[in-house]
Amino acid sequence: MLQHNSYLINGSFNQVISPLDRGLAYGDGVFRTIKVVAGLPEQWPAHYQKLVADCAAINIVCPSAELLMSDWQQLFSAGEDAVAKIIITRGEGERGYKPSAITAPMRLISKFAMPNYAKANFSDGVHLHLCETRLAAQPKLAGVKTLNRLENVLARMEWSNHALVDGVMLDMNGNVIECTSANIFARFGDALITPKLDLCGIAGITRQRIMMLAPSLSLKIDVQHMSFAQLLTADEIIICNSLYGAWQVRCIQENTIQSNGLATAVRAALRT
Amino acid sequence: MLQHNSYLINGSFNQVISPLDRGLAYGDGVFRTIKVVAGLPEQWPAHYQKLVADCAAINIVCPSAELLMSDWQQLFSAGEDAVAKIIITRGEGERGYKPSAITAPMRLISKFAMPNYAKANFSDGVHLHLCETRLAAQPKLAGVKTLNRLENVLARMEWSNHALVDGVMLDMNGNVIECTSANIFARFGDALITPKLDLCGIAGITRQRIMMLAPSLSLKIDVQHMSFAQLLTADEIIICNSLYGAWQVRCIQENTIQSNGLATAVRAALRT
User: N or C: less crowded end of chain A, CB within 10 Å?
Assistant: First the structure.
């Protein structure tokens, strides 16, 4: 259970989640997972920009950055390392899908311990599951980190072997989209390919950052559809998210993947 | 806002929704909307059977009927007419998609006033919007009333004209699936067709009941894919849900639909 002082609802330590909250009723909201370093949100401008964009995609007015930062300062003390999760929902509603005419968004910021990642994930790379659960094509929600995440939940329930750190998810056409909690890049020569997320998947901010810093690694970014068979022919593969940066993929199910230090180079670039 | 004594969380009037509840975090749960007549849940066996099946579809162990009925008796008094909403979530979780090894489902039962439906909806029929938002194909969740309902929310936000009581939703291939809050039937001669819900949509219990009682109306049930153009050539169309039973469709956008009293006959059959 969360400690009492480890979450804030609408800026208060004493508020509770309404049983009428539309986040609970319909997954009617969005979220972010943010690395907290020395009490501060890492990559805050990118996270906030994405939060605003994701809210806009489902017609929620995102709380102001000032409000969220005021919450933040109540919750995190200077020097603290942690993980923050921000959930924004459409707030309370009547019964029924139609939002109330005046809805005040609900904001929940929670504090979690930073995961204790195995050192080998950074030095040696990781093994992945290939998920049987596929992602449905919904252009209106593609790329958006909404609270409708049952596909990721079903996919994550497919394996319990701790040696598998994540699972590759495909769309209904067999194209590679992402992992359950990470985006994915495949290097072919000097081309760094990441899946097109126009029909499904979440366009994470670390993916966006890697796309922007690729030229500094002498790599050309290409966003395109890619089958699983194509993925397996990559020179190397990395997965990324906001908490660990990037990990080298060594194995997907029984398929060994080549590696040549891309994750290490990407992590170094992400730090600068 | 809900009154304090109008909802029960895990059988208690004093519990609150955990900020770690996976229903809020991921829409990781299912729900039912039930008509309460004289304090009792109408069609309870069918609702409970569907609740168990929907929970099973996402690997949640549904609370027992005894537990839910014990909650029910705390919340509803004899003779009371109302609407009940039951939400079952996977309960609290750590951060991350993987459910905790030991998870106790959360149950929330809420009481709402019965909607004040216009009498004309029953006597004259209803006009429908045609939704631009389409339903994504996800066979693992098709038919299941999960808390991942952003498509319905986006669809319901498309219109505000009160004369339109619901909106027809299509899948990505242009097949008719359902309305945002209702299932749909189209009569062609003595054939009563309702869309196949193997890829998306919610298979409601009133739909199920109408399928079973069709022979008593001298109609043959046919579950199949049906384009919107096909739908418009129907001899008549009805929509149905657990609260109002069935309504005759008179108009979808600018398309007038023929009518010959099917909804009245179906409502009578549903009452027996």
Answer: C
Distance CA B96, CA A192 (A): 28
ipTM higher than the 0.90 cut: yes
CB contact under 8 A, A181 and B99: no
Q: Which residues lie closer than 8 Å to B214 by C-beta, 6 or more apart?
A: B192, B220, B221
A194 is catalytic: no
Helix, strand, or coil (residue A44)? helix
Measured between CB atoms, does A1 come within 8 Å of chain B?
Answer: yes
User: What b-and-e string marks burial along B43-73, b requiring 16 or more CB atoms within 10 Å of the CB?
Assistant: beebbbebbbebbebbebebbebeebeebbe
**Which chain A residues touch B59 with a CB distance below 8 Å?**
154, 157
CB contact under 8 A, B18 and A17: yes
A35 is catalytic: no
Q: What CATH homologous superfamily does B119-271 map to?
A: D-amino Acid Aminotransferase, subunit A, domain 2 (3.20.10.10)
Q: Give the residue from B264, B238, B233, B265 showing the smallest Cα distance to B250.
A: B238
Residues in A closer than 8 angstroms to B13, CB to CB, are: none
Per residue in A178-206, pLDDT (tens digit) is 999 999 999 999 999 999 999 999 999 99
* Catalytic residue (choose from A178, A196, A236, A264): A178
- Residue B165's SS3 state is strand
What is the nearest CA distance from A222 to chain B, expressed in angstroms? 26
DSSP A153-219: HHHHTT---TTEEEEEEEBTTSBEEEETTBEEEEEETTEEEEE--SSSSB--HHHHHHHHHGGGGT-
Cβ atoms of A92 and A22 within 8 Å: the answer is yes
Q: Which residues of A touch B137 (CB under 8 A)?
A: 136-137, 172
At residue A4, the pLDDT reads 62
Question: What is the widest separation between alpha-carbon atoms in chain B?
Answer: 55
Phi, psi at A49, each rounded to 5°: -60, -40
Question: Can A133 be counted among the known catalytic residues?
Answer: no
**Global confidence as pTM:** 0.97
Nearest CA in chain A to B137: A136
B137 interface with A at CB cutoff 8 Å: yes
Record: contact B1-A137, CB cut-off 8 A: no
Enumerate the domain spans of chain B.
4-112, 119-271
What digits encode the pLDDT tens for the residues B28-76? Answer: 999 999 999 999 999 999 999 999 999 999 999 999 999 999 999 999 9
Tell me the per-residue pLDDT of B189-218, one tens digit each, with 9 for 90 and over: 999 999 999 999 999 999 999 999 999 999
- B99/A contact by beta carbon, under 8 A: yes
Place A3 in a pLDDT band, splitting at 50, 70 and 90: low
Q: State whether B21 and A26 contact (CB < 8 Å).
A: no
CATH 3.30.470.10 fits A4-112, yes or no: yes
